[in-house]
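I hope you will forgive my troubling you with a question about protein structure. I should value your view on which stretches of the chain appear to form regular backbone elements. Here, with my thanks, is the record as I have it:
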Amino acid sequence: MDISVVISIFNEKESLRELVSGIRENLENASLSHEIIMVNDGSTDGSWEEIRALADKINTPVNQIIKGICFRRNYGKSTALYCGFEAAQGDVVITMDADLQDDPKELPELYRMIKEDGYDLVSGWKKKRHDNKLTKNLPSRIYNATARCVTKVKLHDMNCGLKAYKNEVVKNIEVYGEMHRYIPFLAKEAGFSNIGEKEVTHHKRKFGKSKFGMNRFVNGYLDLMTLWFLQKFGKKPMHLFGVWGTLMFLVGGGITLWIIIRKLVLQSRMASQIAAQGFTDIKLRGVTDQPLFYLALLAIVLGAMLFLTGFIAELISRNSAQRNTYKIKDRF
């Protein structure tokens, strides 16, 4: 089979018939065999019934074009894509949104870029968007700029739902939580570094309303930081916590020693002056009267806690059943 189209669906009943029609028309015109895997992510508007109706109309005993998967509740787009990836059998797997904002006319060219140009993954770039500029376009630009900086994957639109993959890519990555935003980075970390980009057409939403609000950008940044940390220090937590813990402990300990030694030196000098000149009213500031002393103690305590955190995390990592996870490209 040439193409598997994976679609995550959440309350998009009105769009499904037109979406399926557009996909089939463009792929059949290009003579590409295909399947459409529709994952119903806990819809409450009758989307699943519409998927069943489309399957009954289109599928035959010999050729099952539409395959449906229905969740009992809403689990999120990442889980829906992961489930769709497991079921995909096509040489090229293409994901797209169900809201008709992605154009099915792009599918044959995305397929060609994977098969002929040799890309592992091709991501769409909605250069000209038909969204609200203030609430979506501007935050999206900032978000993508940050993502490029952190992940080192040079894509203009990391979160575009229209993407094409070699089948082996989707079989070797695990999409979980909200990590569907960072599939190109997950693919890169799995060894699939030939990542391309294609400018795609973006349409206005025809039916319903967007399922994403401003909170997705906040969550996106948090997920980005989590992903970066797990990829960099997930297998070696002591390299982060141990270094910073040791540094804070040494700085705090050094300051504490300096304060105590300074007090002893000043006491010695004062004793000499008292003996030589007969002063009796000279007082020294106590060690515990200095705010710097307590800041130093805080640094010592935090340093010890960070070091122990890294040590415990290292023990957990070394005893994990998945401590030696790796992907084999070929063998003989």
In short: The beta strands are 3-9, 34-40, 66-70, 92-97, 121-125, 163-166, 195-199. The chain is about 50% helix and 10% strand. Residues 238-277 form the longest helix (40 residues).
